[in-house]
Amino acid sequence: MAASYFDVDGTLVRTNLVHPTLFYLLNQATPARTLARLGGALLRAPLLALAELRDRRAFNEELYMLFRGMSEDRLHALADEAVDKVLRPAIFQGSKDLIRRSKDLGHQVVICSGALDFLMRPLARELGADDIIANRLEFKEGYASGRMLPPVVAGPAKALLLREHARTHGHRLDDCFAYSDSYSDVPMLSVVGHPSAVNPDAALLRLAHAHRWPVVHLDRTP
Amino acid sequence: MTHPCIVTLDRKSAPRVLFSGNRLVEVDLPAGTRVIYPKPPLEGLKDPDSAIRYAINHPYNREPLYALLRPGMKVVIAMDDISLPLPPMKRPDVRERVLTIVLQLLADHGVDDVEIIIATSVHRKMTGPEVRHCVGDRIFDAYWPKRLYNHDAEDRDNMAFVGETDLGERVVLNKRAVESDLLIYVNLNLVPMDGGHKSVAVGLCGYESLKAHHNPKVMRNCHSYMDPKTSELNTIVERMGKVTNQVLKVFTIETTVNNRMFDRPLGFLHKNEDDWTSNEKLSWKALQFTLDRTPAEARQKIFEKVPSPFELTGVYAGETEAVHAHTLKRCFEQYCVPVEGQADILVSGIPYVSPYNVNAFLNPLLVQVMAQGYLFNMYRGRPLVKKGGTMIITHPCTDRFDHAQHAPYVEFVHRLLPETRDAMQLHKRFESEFAAHPAYLQMYRRGNAYHPVHAFFMWYWGEAGRQHVGRVIVVGADNAYIPQVLGYETARSMHEALEMAKDSAPPNPQITCMHLPPIVMADMVAPRGVAT
User: What is the pLDDT of residues B79-96, one digit of tens each?
Assistant: First the structure.
């Protein structure tokens, strides 16, 4: 059996990591806490912008610091609602069809995202995916420390995690498919036999054309 | 006496001008070479709109269209896609003329529930501007995209089972068309393999139905595609079409156009080079000078931008088979040139356009389709070239593909063909893998790409030619790899190609040059005194 690995943000849904994070910031236990969280986020905005320029992992690390001090219970309790209100409406029209056709091939469908695991699990159920590779927050005494547990899912590390996943599940990488919208995922796309660019950014589009990879636009109406 | 469209060259004959992709090249052919030119364009109908009205009011084997209409009924109009005609024609396109009259008639009879489906089958979807060019501004603005749209053969929820032939071929068609009270098909019949039952039973079907006839076994038994009576492909499509017409109420409107492919400035390309006037010789030199100094990309764009001045030569309406008999007669009248005796060596230019690359580059797989598919099959009776004979084509065979339209072709040419050129092997080992490729399918569904199995169909399209022709030699290839992958030999000049071809030909071989476009078909008869 083979697997199909999907990046999520920009690939299967039009949102990015910031959208569900904002949902959490806006849904604190009290209005005062919400205001405090938003204020903190605004102060960190320049750091986030700088991190985004540096690399994807640095951005994720900065972004998830915004979760520091939130209780594990609350994060998990709000996950279904976050998916309902933020992610589900942002699923591209063709995403479920693409996943269904991957399953038709007998593939194990795996979401491979830098987003947080407690959000990716309900999203995977919604999309019909079988497994997830996602980031995990560190919790201390029931509260998020703001740090991610290793291995961090971002950039080139995605390729290593994908390889590891394929080996564990007995998939031949040559038979596997991978889909992403971002140039930062080129390592992940490069390790499988069947890479595809989905709603690609300009750099990935250029690369996809050079390597003659399929270019899919899930956001278009059939 | 030979037909006026057949010219035998002598030592004083001028070089012939042949297409080589998006360039035109002069080739010297030896004395004695037989050159077959297209027939002059048939005269266009003086009043096309009146002819269309007359046809739908005086149909063959059916009540007039108005008599089939009742207020509130559900109607689908299906029409041919951008693969017809070639190149796309000047506005107004024939389809715009027919649709305008039909839609007015429907409105006059209180029929409001009308959808127009472009019968693309597994071809690429037409873009908005292409559809606008085809149907005109008024219809486009009123119907696109909700009530005028491309067929989607992979929209599983919108395909419906119609029936099965006695031989088990399953007919699965566009659901909206199947559920309509009346299906009107608006066809533009460029070549004899178009139209008839193919319009609905192929144009509105999906892979499940297509694989019944688009496979190497069937393609090997087509002699030729352009002669429906001897084409197994056509026999199967007819069987499936009959099942379709038993279930669906189909009103067929077919149209034919003449072969006025080039407008006045390029009109000399229709003619014998020895008969060119001084002005035409100057025009040719100017054209050659311009094309030689224009980058390939721009040359392609120039050709794409020039629509053809085709004229309507016939409109026929009514029951599918009765209509198509008239259409075919008109088509053959325009294209067929009686030819006596097969050639040992067949020479032809490959132009920049095929049915499958409108507004895109003619990639290597389509070069093969043009050579062993279309050109080889341009005959009735017997092939223009003898069994085991040689085809010489002029084309650069550039390793270039349009990514948006032909992505699956790339993998087919670069991954599969180096493994095997055997169509049966390709069919058995790889077709189903491509047919289910999730990314390619999304490119077909949401973009403007051909369905992934189309690449296979393109290879099968050349199968009858591949089985018959001994060798194909390319003149003017800009690389050695692509011809090698396609199974072709290469030569630096026509002279060299002819010398190579003579190695496997009898002494004093018969050399024939098919001078196209415009379209010409050989009506092949055996030489006098030779039994067929």
Answer: 999 998 999 999 999 999
Mean predicted confidence (pLDDT) in B194-208: 97
Domain that holds residue B213: 63-257
How high is the ipTM of this complex?
Answer: 0.89
Considering the domain boundaries, does residue B326 fall inside one?
A: no
pLDDT at B531: 46
* The pLDDT of residue B17: 96
Write the DSSP assignment of B115-183 as a string of letters. EEEE--TTSPPPPHHHHHHHH-HHHHHHHTTTTEEE--TT-GGGEEEEEE-TT--EEEEEHHHHHSSEE
Q: What is the pLDDT of residue B262?
A: 87
B359 and B431 share a domain?
Answer: yes
Task: Say if residue B96 is in the same domain as residue B240.
Answer: yes
Q: Are B226 and B155 in contact (CB under 8 A)?
A: no
Distance in Å, alpha carbon of A10 to nearest chain B alpha carbon: 16
Min Cα distance B457 → chain A (Å) is 19
Mutation target vs A (from B442, B445, B451; most A CBs, 10 A cutoff):
B442
Q: Does A211 touch chain B (CB under 8 A)?
A: no
DSSP class of residue B520 equals -
B96 and B230 fall within a common domain: yes
Please indicate whether, in this complex, the C-beta atoms of A214 and B407 are within 8 angstroms of each other.
Answer: yes
Q: Note whether B127 and B161 are same-domain residues.
A: yes
Query: Domain total for chain B?
Result: 2
CA distance A18 to A9: 10
pLDDT of residue B1: 67
Check residue A161 and give its pLDDT: 97
Residue B44 belongs to a domain: no
Sorting pLDDT into bands at 50, 70 and 90, what band is B252? very high
CA distance A67 to A48: 14
The answer to whether residue B465 is domain-embedded is yes
SS3 string, A155-209, reads CHHHHHHHHHHHHHHCCCHHHCEEEECCHHHHHHHHCCCEEEEECCCHHHHHHHH
Count A/B contacts: CB-CB distance under 8 Å: 62
Segment holding B102, helix H or strand E: helix B94-108
CATH number assigned to the domain comprising residue B225: 3.40.50.11440
Phi-psi region of B415 (alpha: psi -120 to 50; beta: other; left: phi over 0): alpha
Identify the DSSP state of B450.
P
Residue B58, in any domain of the structure: no
Please give the CATH superfamily to which domain A3-216 belongs: HAD superfamily/HAD-like (3.40.50.1000)
Query: In this complex, which of B152, B414, B438 lies closest to A98 when CB atoms are compared?
Result: B438
Q: What is the mean pLDDT of chain B?
A: 95
| pTM > 0.95: yes or no | no
User: Same structural domain for residues B146 and B278?
Assistant: no
Q: Is the pLDDT of residue A150 over 90?
A: yes
Using CB atoms, which residue from A104, A209, A220 is nearest to B446? A220
Give the CATH number, domain containing residue B394: 3.90.226.30
pLDDT at res. B530? 55
